[in-house]
UniProtKB/TrEMBL annotation:
Species assigned in the record: Carpinus fangiana
Highest rank taxon of the organism: Eukaryota
PANTHER family per record: AMUN, ISOFORM A
The protein's name: HhH-GPD domain-containing protein
């Protein structure tokens, strides 16, 4: 799906096919990891009042979700799984308190070894999906034309574009968060890859341009 598309129906279609796209990847534990990330973790974070935080075990599971849904980088999981509990609690608590300043929130999390802007964005998206979308390669490609730069500066550009798109698509009838936009873009990109893989080699080459 083209990022500039303003057809709300197409975006809703992309978003509603998210779960079936997750299933289509046939990756071990991805369904349960995705359920943990989208449905179980957010309410747990919000129940920790007045200073919400994430635990090392939760961060490790979040990292498993991120790497299973995207590119597998085992060293990142090793780094995150061995982080000190107090350090993770402290950094994440400061990050959540920094919102709505997304730049400051990402910076508070990236002091942790193995946590770059992309992983930080996943933590923030779980807590505040209306502010901070997850920095997935597929959504970066669609919104910015590249997924090679994982810097804070690039993430802020990305988040701003997805916040703007979410506002553009939202109305009295439909409500989109920046995280909804990310999932719709990811879902659409995975759908296109699936189509390409089922086509003959010639049409596959044409699609790759």
């Amino acid at each position: 799906m083209n990022f500039e598309c303003s057809e709300v129906g197409l975006w809703k279609e992309g978003l509603s096919s998210y779960s079936s796209r997750i299933e289509s990847l046939n990756k071990p534990n991805l369904l349960s990891l995705d359920d943990f990330y989208r449905n179980q973790l957010p309410p747990v974070l919000h129940q920790r009042n007045p200073n919400p935080y994430i635990t090392t075990a939760e961060l490790s599971k979040l990292m498993q979700w991120k790497l299973t849904r995207g590119k597998w980088r085992p060293r990142l999981l090793d780094f995150v799984s061995s982080l000190d509990e107090a350090a993770v609690n402290w950094a994440s608590s400061k990050a959540f308190q920094s919102l709505p300043d997304v730049s400051k929130a990402v910076s508070e999390l990236t002091v942790l070894k193995g946590v770059g802007p992309a992983t930080a964005s996943a933590v923030l998206a779980a807590y505040a999906p209306n502010l901070a979308p997850f920095m997935s390669d597929e959504a970066m490609e669609a919104a910015l034309g590249s997924s090679k730069d994982y810097s804070l500066k690039q993430y802020l550009l990305f988040a701003d574009k997805l916040q703007t798109k979410a506002k553009e698509l939202s109305s009295e009838c439909d409500s989109f968060s920046p995280s909804d936009v990310e999932r719709a873009l990811w879902s659409s990109a995975i759908g296109a890859k699936l189509l390409a893989s089922h086509s003959d080699p010639d049409s596959k080459r044409k699609r790759k341009r």
